[in-house]
From TrEMBL:
InterPro entries: Amidase/PGRP_sf, Amidase_domain, NAMLAA_amidase_2, PGBD-like_sf, PGBDSf. It is an enzyme of class 3 (hydrolase). Gene3D superfamilies: Peptidoglycan recognition protein-like (3.40.80.10), PGBD-like superfamily/PGBD (1.10.101.10). Belongs to the N-acetylmuramoyl-L-alanine amidase 2 family. It catalyses: Hydrolyzes the link between N-acetylmuramoyl residues and L-amino acid residues in certain cell-wall glycopeptides. It comes from the Bacteria. This is N-acetylmuramoyl-L-alanine amidase. Keywords: Cell wall biogenesis/degradation, Hydrolase. Residues 8-143 form the N-acetylmuramoyl-L-alanine amidase domain. CDD domains: PGRP (cd06583). The keyword Cell wall biogenesis/degradation applies.
Amino acid sequence: MTIIETASPNFDERALPVTMIVLHYTGMVDAASALERLCDPAAKVSAHYLIDEDGTIHRLVAEDKRAWHAGAARWGRIEDVNSASIGIELVNPGHEFGYRDFPEAQIDALIGLVGDIKERYAITRGNVVGHSDIAPTRKQDPGELFPWHRLARLRLALPRPTRNLMDPMWSDAGFLIALERFGYDVKDKLAAVVAFQRRYRPELIDGEIDGECRSILLALLLPKPQGDD
């Protein structure tokens, strides 16, 4: 795995051990624009890595430093997500500039990088998340086109459960309690449900809590979620 050193000045010291990987899209017109912003001291944003659409990997911030990629975010009990995570940006125009599929070369490079990081820090599958998972009121990335199933098949992320699904018939309040237990910030109910659907049921993102959503969430809370075969 070849990595180009492209240093960003935008980092500080970690306050927590690394237990998470957060995936983003750049949401800018091209890689050059994204790199310029992530390395601009005035922008005050950065990530540990950026992966271009051709699979080129740039390291912007050393892993032992706290990059500024998550913003106001939360996952479970972790509120300083920047301190606890490695942030990876994927070059993609995003929903604002012409959201499109992520190329094979880019995902191949991502799989190698995530696999390496996950193994070195013993990160659990449930802590490989998208920006929208940790900041549901603000973010949509990496979005509904991101191929989570490719990571899941290699045990690099949680799968979308598909086997032996059963609707627990929770009330909406019960679903939100379960969703919070899983990791999501549920202060904004609609945003939390949309973020969950964007990740685990991207073909229908309507913000409605239904039997399929309940069944998927119940399966995810079990010790060994199965799916994405």
